[in-house]
Amino acid sequence: MDSLLNAQTVLSTLDATLRVSTPLILCAMAGLFSERSGIIDISLEGKMLFAAFAAGAVAAVTGSPWLALAAGMLISTVLSLLHGFACITTRGDQVVSGLAINVLASGLTIVLGIAWFSQGGQTPALASDARFMPLELPFIEQIGNLPFIGPFLEIVISGHNLLVYVALIAVPITWWVVYKTRFGLRLRAVGENPLAVDTAGISVSLLRYKAVVIAGVLCGIAGTYLAIAQNAAFAREMTAGQGYIALAAMIFGKWRPVPALLACLMFGFLDAVAIRLQGVPLPGIGEVPVQLIQALPYLLTVILLAGFIGKAVAPKAIGVPFAKER
Amino acid sequence: MSTSNVELPAWIEVILIPVLNICLALFFAGLIIFAIGESPLEAVGIMLNGAFGYDEGVGYTLYYTTNFIFTGLAVAIAFHARLFNIGGEGQAYIGGLGVGLAFLLLDGYLPTVLLLPIGIIAAALFGAAWAFIPAWLQAYRGSHIVITTIMFNFIASAVMVYLLVNVLIKPGSMSPETREFSQSSWMPFMHEMLAVVGIDVTRTPLNLSFILALVCCLLVWIYIWKTRWGYALRTAGQSEAAAVYAGIKPKRIIIITMCISGALAGMVAVNEVMGVHHRVILNFTAGYGFTGIAVALMGRNHPVGIILASLLFGVLYQGGAELAFEMPKITREMVVAIQGLIILFSGALALMLRPAMVKIWLAIMPARAVAQHG
Fold it and tell me: B352 — contact with chain A (CB < 8 Å)?
């Protein structure tokens, strides 16, 4: 037990937590924008996967992480616009549309990957200058010598790549946009009562399109992070359900940015701990099956949705296509 | 002018628009093949030949079709009650657990005539049980069934990995799968049954489950359109308020419908576990549950449409395997991409062509349109 609980292990687990939580945080914020506007988004997974593929491919061909990031954000936004077109313009079923994007991304990334790179669906491994590499915060060595807070800052906060910090900054920005700007007020209104927004002379469609585009950009960053920051290449199915975990985290956070962030960190922590707990018996409980820890985010979300731990209330107009009266 | 309240003749709504949507999906699939640098027409030729060109191909095509009929029916019956069951994958997986437990306990003691029905019932019961929980949560706790069934797919996967790795694994084996069940519990293969009546066909995985799938189509059709339960189901799907007014209990409909849906999805285990693998293996569901959604959308939730759509996906799966062999640049995942396109065009964008159709219809039929509005 000593080996599990010493300060070094705790800090490095928290460090890993932050790394695995990053795509979850970005996707949860993406889902929040979309769903607050009244558009269900189960396509976080597919957008992130396709963005990861685009980023991996562009980084491999051009060697530029910035072009890769642009490609990831672009392709994800295109998929978002497709989702928007299906849900907003043709008023199709939002769940079906999201599912279509997930299935399409799952198939097409592998087909194109094999056709273009012939490496079984992988993109070529990247050199470090084609990736986003860890950044050391300024004066971190001096700060690291401070008692208590020093090692925390040095090990947990410092030494991540740029996109981790982007994810962390995305949360207060999301909070500010949703709660403190005119756009945010309208966004929340359109998800609750689109008719009222329409009556006020504001375009429901345009607002919702803006929301899904923001979601696309954020998922694009998440996918880019997976392919060229956390890893050194795109691998087939590399999102592995993280888009759904992010969706669960957003619901767990009751469609609010800060609670969603905490849910992402909790799910990320479970993921980071699952690896460490494998085969290690806990005092009083015995060995915890790693599958149980992996399933915990889904289980907790089901329990929350069932109203057994607080009540998660979705935006009222979610999933309902808006038909403008003429 | 809004086009959504203009009525179109049934043949446009039920046949023309759906067929055009499928054509659009296949057109984009062709475009992808073209972009990869292969000839789409040649690819179609290879696929059709792989699926129907020789009796082994036909056997495999119908074997895949069997799975899609089960999962397609599962999604469709839920759609009729306006429930979206994304959980077919998990329900099929847990159905396999039911078959596995039943046969691990009983296969040494009972004869085939008892084992086969027991296996089928176990698959249906376990699939239904896995659908019951999200249904109950939707009916009595108000949780969204789409989200719960998605979560239950992941939970099913974790449960099955745990059980296969730690509990059900064949003693002394390294790979996470159960022991092989005794031959008395195997679903008879089609080539064996045909050999009995003197017809000689190549050995394929096609088995008696195919007939079971067709029977399920008939039963679902009777249930939805010819019984009072089906009437209640469709009424609740159309309007909950009307259903309540008519004395129908929507909560009960949700639970019964989802249980039937889960039972149908569980039947995939009959084809895969009882029919082909004869043991429970990891991920034997291989995405068939998700394909069921495309099948139901494409078949417009009608058993006849589902049989046709399942056949198309059977062709895509079997022909796609052949295609991957003949054209090394194209892989089996192409079928997944096509599936995505079909869900997109037949499902999400199903209404895309309608406004244009209304305009064309009004242009060529001005008199009738005026009469309608008059």
Answer: yes
Nearest CA in chain A to B134: A302
Tell the burial category of A267 from Cβ atoms under 10 Å away from its Cβ (0-12, 13-18, 19+): buried
Which chain A residues have a beta carbon less than 8 Å from that of B343? 96, 99-100, 103-104
Gyration radius of chain A over CA positions: 20
Question: What does each of the 326 residues of chain A score in pLDDT, given as a tens digit?
Answer: 445 567 778 888 888 999 999 999 999 999 999 999 999 999 999 999 999 999 999 999 999 999 999 999 999 999 999 999 999 999 988 999 999 999 999 999 999 999 899 888 889 988 888 898 888 777 777 777 777 777 787 778 888 889 999 999 999 999 999 999 999 999 999 999 999 999 999 999 999 999 999 999 999 999 999 999 999 999 999 998 899 999 989 988 989 999 999 999 999 998 888 877 777 777 777 777 888 888 988 998 888 888 776 667 788 888 888 887 65
How is residue B169 annotated by DSSP? S
Residue written as tokens 């030729």?
B45
d(CA A261, CA A251): 11
- Residue A69 structure tokens: 């990031």
What distance in Å separates residue B115's CA from the closest CA in chain A? 32
Q: How many angstroms separate the CA atoms of A211 and A213, rounded?
A: 5
User: DSSP letter at A166?
Assistant: H
Backbone angles phi, psi at A158, to 5 degrees: -85, 165
B6 touches chain A (CB under 8 A): no
* Residue pointed to by tokens 């500010």: A176
C-alpha B238/C-alpha B217 separation (Å) is 22
Comparing alpha-carbon positions, the chain A residue that sits nearest to B162 is A291
Q: Would you state the CATH architecture of domain A2-131+158-305?
A: Orthogonal Bundle (1.10)
Q: What is the pTM of this model?
A: 0.90
CA trace torsion A266, A267, A269, A274 (10° rounding): 140
Q: Where are the domains of chain A?
A: 2-131+158-305
Whether residues B336 and A107 touch (CB distance < 8 A) is answered with yes
- The answer to whether B278 and B182 have CB atoms below 8 angstroms apart is no
Indicate yes or no: CB of A307 within 8 angstroms of CB of B143.
yes
Indicate the DSSP class of residue A287.
E
Alpha helix segments (H runs only) across chain B:
10, 17-36, 40-52, 55-80, 88-106, 112-141, 145-162, 190-196, 209-226, 228-238, 240-245, 250-266, 268-269, 288-298, 303-326, 333-342, 354-364, 366-373
A–B CB contacts, 8 A cutoff, strictly below: 154
